[in-house]
Amino acid sequence: MINWLLIYYPELLAGIFTTLQLMLGSLVVGFIVALLFACLHHTGKKFFTVPINVFVFFIRSTPLLVQLFLIYYGAAQFSLIRDSFLWPLLKEPFICALIGLGINSAAYTTVVLKSAMQAIPRGEIEAAKALGLSPIAILKHIILPRTFIIIWPSYTNEMVLILKATALASTITLLDIMGVTRQLIAKTYDTLTGLLVAGLLYVILTLLIVGICHWVSRRFKRVGW
Amino acid sequence: MLHGYLPQLLAGAWLTLQLATNALMVGLVLTVLGALALNARNRFLHYGAFSLTTLIRGLPELLVLFTVYFGTEILLYKLFNQPVEISNFWAGVLALGIIFGAYGAQVFQQALYTIPRGQQEAATALGLTKWQCYKSIILPQAWRHALPSLGNLTLILIKDTALVSLIGLTDLMSRAQAAASQTQKPFTFYFAVAIIYLVLTAIVELGLHKAERHANRHLRKTP
Amino acid sequence: MQRFTTLLLSLTLSVISFTAIAQQHMHFATEATYAPLVYLDKDGKINGYEAEIVQAICATLKNASCTFTHQGWDSLVPSLKLGKVDAIFGGLAITDQRAEQVSFTQPLYENSIAFLAEKDKLFTIDKAGLAGKTIGVQIGTTMEHYLREHYKEVNVKSYASLQDALLDIETGRINSVLGDTPVLIAWMKNKPKDKFSLITIPAADTKYFGPGNAIAVNKNNKQLLEQLNTAIDTLKKNGTLAKIAAKYLSMDVVE
Asked: Taking Cα atoms as reference points, which of C27, C38, C17 lies closest to residue C161?
């Protein structure tokens, strides 16, 4: 196994880099979209809640693999897309994976944010209204900060789930850790070493993420939230 | 309809269904065994089960699938000193079952934990053996607590069945891939697959909802 | 709860396929997504040029029963090494690197490799012509190895299945696909005429692809190797190989 690491570390490092880029990118995209959706859903207006619920239901009820294939191969079927300005972006497997994982993360995070927002004591919001704060100010100073603290443990979970999900991007030719591993296995016919090394890399990354998240939680507590 | 590929897709869906049900059963068995191991007083069992379940939960499902697929043969080869044939199907069942079991064991262990020790002591006082106590008193109650999470894991299992197309099983996903490449209409077929999975998960969610109501029937207020 | 268990049990029992230890028949594995060499027909059975050759081989060996299974390309060699299957085939070229892992029979036919590209975007196969192009290949094939080793300025995109590469050239994601000529020709038949064309590889490069496609068996299975080679000789002598070739391939690639 050490042999493998010594010979193939450039490819593996490139793979790790791609995996991390994809993971962080998807989390950011997913969070921004989820924040928007959660706030819209919070208004309670059916115009927002119904499509958002349908979106979440569809994403949560279909496998990520199917979603990725739909975006990468499926979108390319339509000449409308191929001739548009989006094509240079959608041509790239990285962008397609980013969209796929981002949407997936958005769906799950929306639910988490929604329930966290509902968990904020109504009394605080009423007090803020009594003090004359505008709805946006209430959102900005009261609801959102409390929400982030509440969701942090679940979001840690979500980060690990997205890390694991990046492995599926290898099926649309992206050379992440899993993609590089499959290539190296095909080259060397050494299946077990390849899988072992890949497993080790994912375990290390997971431990790093969980460690960083715990450190952040402790910082929250120190600040007095 | 779907360029004549519907029968093939349905054949694939049937395989997916068979895969899911078998994996679920394997997973449930591993869940109970795993939870008991996690709760065991024997340190070796406890830490062994904890490390194993945490490890499996931390790895991508795709990696676990490949490892089980390629690794079981190597393991069996070393054990029996001759090649043992395990089909793709059972490798897939085993892999998905192991993934379910790893998550399920930790969920079920927490459920077991919520049941007051007093019940176990009372059972011993009444003369029940440990096995009878578990079977008639502890497990049914733990089952009720664990049902929502186990239900969630079941839905995840159903979605993970799409991965077995990557080890060459002719399930729904791989049939769609074949049809898509033959007709050059990937969107049509992958969307059809998405719809079929949607229907499948909706049915299972309905069933789970009913199961939860049934398990909690003693708690529902009657007018 | 009981009804639920019964339902689950009956669903389980309706499942087939647990095979016992080391049966007396021959188990051939292939990735059947490679028409016309080997593919799954409408009934889900494995058919094709090489499949028919293997069936003919089995008919020659008197008391052998053969089963075929379809599995992923990258699992073929590992399955063979582990003894999970007896033999593998299907666009499997003889190479020195593979010969270190498995034993090959004599070639069933000479392989022919070509680049597929759009007719108005053809290019020459040399360092200048290939520079900056993105070529799709199947992971773990001689085509992938050839491009990576000899034309380093090319962007090689490896797909789990050649069919995925073909999907991508249709949409213009990649400039070309490098694969077995019969497979590319069969694919082009379903496309509008004159949209795609083949570029043959330079004669000097054909040596990188080996003497041909063959069946591979486990290194320790010398008996099966002999049986298969004898059968192939028989089929060559009585003209069966040529007949099957004529049926499937528009060009004569049998030696």
From this structure: C38
Q: Where are the domains of chain C?
A: 26-110+211-248, 113-209
Which residue from A34, A91, B23 is spatially nearest to C155, judged by alpha carbons? A91
Q: Could you tell me if C77 lies within 8 Å of chain A, comparing CB atoms?
A: yes
Which chains sit next to C, with 3 or more Cβ pairs under 8 A?
Answer: A, B
Please report residues of A whose CB lies closer than 8 A to that of B62. 167-168, 170, 178
Strand, coil or helix: A60? helix
Question: Cβ of B8 and C160 within 8 Å?
Answer: no
Q: Does domain C113-209 have CATH number 3.40.190.10?
A: yes
Residues C159, C161, C162, C167, CA torsion sign: negative
Which structural domain range is residue B62 located in? 15-169
CB of C208 within 8 A of CB of C150?
A: yes
Q: Determine contact, residues C47/C197, Cβ cutoff 8 Å.
A: no
- Among A173, A180, A191, the residue to mutate for chain C (most C Cβ within 10 A): A173
Q: Which amino acid is at A190?
A: D
CA distances, B85 to each of A48, B62, B75, B167, B172 (Å): 54, 22, 12, 15, 24
Which tens digits make up the pLDDT trace of A5-42? 888 889 899 999 999 999 999 999 999 999 999 888 88
Determine, yes or no, domain membership for B214.
no
The pLDDT tens digits of the residues spanning B135-177 come to 888 888 888 888 888 998 999 999 999 999 888 788 899 889 8
CA distance C77 to chain A (A): 7
**Exposed / middle / buried, residue B219 (Cβ in 10 Å: 0-12, 13-18, 19+):** exposed
Chain B positions touching A164 (Cβ under 8 A) are 58-61
Chain A, 178 to 197: residues with Cβ < 8 Å from chain B are 178, 191-192, 195
The tokens for C208 are 């990188």
Q: What CATH code is carried by the domain that includes residue B152? A: 1.10.3720.10
Task: Please indicate whether, in this complex, the C-beta atoms of A183 and C158 are within 8 angstroms of each other.
Answer: yes
The sign of the CA dihedral C34, C37, C41, C47 is: negative
Question: Taking Cα atoms as reference points, which of C147, C240, C18, A49 lies closest to residue B18?
Answer: C18
**Residue B42 lies inside a defined structural domain of this protein:** yes
Alpha-carbon distance C121 to C119, whole Å? Answer: 6
ipTM of the complex: 0.86
Rounded-to-integer distance, Cα C187 and Cα C166, Å: 8
> Is the minimum CB–CB distance between C66 and chain A shorter than 8 Å?
no
Using a CB-CB cut-off of 8 Å, the residues of chain C touching B86 are 84
Task: Mutation target for C interface from A189, A190, A191, A195: give the one with most C CBs within 10 A.
Answer: A189
Q: Map out the domains of chain A with their CATH numbers.
A: 2-223 (1.10.3720.10)
- What count of other Cβ atoms lies within 10 Å of the Cβ of residue B115? 15
| Residue of C77, C144, C173 for testing the chain A interface, max A β-carbons within 10 Å | C173
In this predicted model, what pLDDT tens digit does every residue of A181-212 receive, in sequence order? 998 888 888 888 899 999 999 999 999 998 99
Chain centroid to CA C78:
15
Residues 173-202 of chain B with CB under 8 A from chain A are 173, 177, 180, 184-188, 190-191, 193-194, 197-198, 201-202
Superfamily of domain C26-110+211-248: Periplasmic binding protein-like II (3.40.190.10)
